[in-house]
Design goal:
6-stranded parallel sheet, about 15% strand
């Protein structure tokens, strides 16, 4: 398999599938360029190697063909600035003779952005003929869009067949996959997964898959109240999925059978309203009266979680412990974050992934203290569920 570090890009037009699905305001100004910055190392590597990056991306969800509000034109000047003033042009389309001619005329060091891939339904349908037309615009294909790697789209997977010997991961996907594999395939023991989130239903597949891999599983967030109620506990107005009580008991049974240590909050910070100014008290998790709701882990639970985390060799953190957006209920998430940072300092590998977890580490200031922060959403979760990601398999030739 080719790698971006060793591939010779001199004189080559490198088709790069990136995720430039950035938010724009009503003036078509970029309000968050994180995804563009994430692709810069790959783009710069190709330019420095004497090649010409041909950028492919989607933006938004156009319904019926080209729509000006979903054009990639607003990205041109900003990408040029990010690349230190490099020449960046945009094609009027992503396929066709005019686009092909523009791609052939791109000089080494120049960048060409193809227009929004999703102006064609064939992109999301994984149409092979459309993929072949895209492939005509480049000499090699680089997949650097991990956020869409779980989709078998024309530009993220199908196009690989037209570059049997000239396909590779960009630096972003390469680092995502390497980091995930440190958790999923070759973890340093003990492996601890911290799974937060409100609902058992949204995490059930990941939890079941992780039970085959982890030594310790800490369940935080609102899902713990479903477990508490399954054991006959009173959870008041706390979030709870009555349809998943049996599922919760089965997860506990599975964990025991597989020798996994399962940890859940023994006590909680309960409040009489979903508000930062609510009255609060510390209660055992199964003794929350009507009209009260659990919004964070209690002090006993936090101490137990910290002890487990700080002895871990590998840590996966997906989902906050409490309603960290409110200061009154942020202590559980903060304490877990501090423990993850402490374990990382001692040599553990820590991976944080999932939107709320990433927001939590950024908001609470732990981003620099963990080993890796995954930028992907759906792709990350599907990888943890044990599913094959088409965008990864296509590069690996699986």
């Amino acid at each position: 398999m080719q790698t971006i570090s060793s591939y010779d890009f001199k004189g080559k037009r490198a088709l790069i599938r990136v995720d430039f699905n950035v938010p724009l305001n009503d003036k078509f100004e970029i309000t968050d360029d994180t995804r563009m910055r994430a692709a810069l190392p790959t783009i710069k590597k190709i330019i420095e190697g004497g090649g010409s990056p041909i950028i492919m991306s989607h933006l938004g969800r156009p319904k019926n063909g080209p729509e000006e509000k979903f054009s990639l034109k607003p990205l041109v000047n900003h990408l040029s600035e990010l690349l230190g003033g490099a020449t960046v042009k945009i094609a009027p389309d992503c396929i066709g003779d005019e686009v092909k001619a523009m791609a052939e005329d791109v000089k080494p060091g120049e960048v060409l952005i193809l227009e929004n891939l999703r102006f064609y339904k064939e992109e999301t349908a994984g149409d092979e003929e459309f993929a072949a037309k895209l492939a005509e615009n480049g000499d090699c294909w680089v997949n650097d869009a991990f956020g869409t790697a779980h989709r078998a789209h024309a530009s993220t997977a199908v196009i690989a067949k037209f570059f049997p010997n000239d396909k590779m991961f960009g630096y972003l996907i390469e680092s995502e996959v390497e980091s995930l594999d440190k958790v999923v395939k070759a973890p340093k023991r003990p492996l601890t997964a911290i799974m937060g989130g409100a609902k058992v239903s949204s995490k059930i597949t990941i939890i079941e898959n992780m039970l085959d891999k982890v030594d310790n599983l800490i369940l935080g967030g609102g899902m713990k109240f479903t477990f508490a109620k399954a054991h006959g506990g009173k959870v008041g107005s706390s979030i709870c999925e009555d349809d998943f009580l049996e599922t919760a008991l089965n997860i506990e049974k599975l964990a025991k059978e597989k020798g996994v240590n399962l940890y859940m909050a023994s006590d909680v910070i309960a409040a009489d309203a979903f508000s930062n100014d609510a009255n609060t008290k510390i209660l055992p998790i199964g003794e929350i009266p009507d009209g009260w709701m659990g919004l964070d882990a209690g002090p006993d639970a936090i101490e137990e979680f910290k002890k487990v985390i700080e002895k871990s060799g590998t840590i996966l953190w997906n989902g906050p412990i409490g309603v960290f957006e409110m200061e009154a209920f942020a202590e559980g998430t903060r304490a877990v974050g501090e423990a993850v940072v402490e374990a990382t300092k001692k040599g553990a590998f820590s991976l944080v992934g999932g939107g709320d977890s990433v927001a939590a580490v950024n908001q609470l200031g732990f981003a620099d203290g963990v080993s890796y922060i995954s930028t992907a959403g759906g792709a990350l979760l599907e990888y943890l569920e044990g599913k094959t990601l088409p965008g990864v398999a296509a590069v690996r030739g699986e």
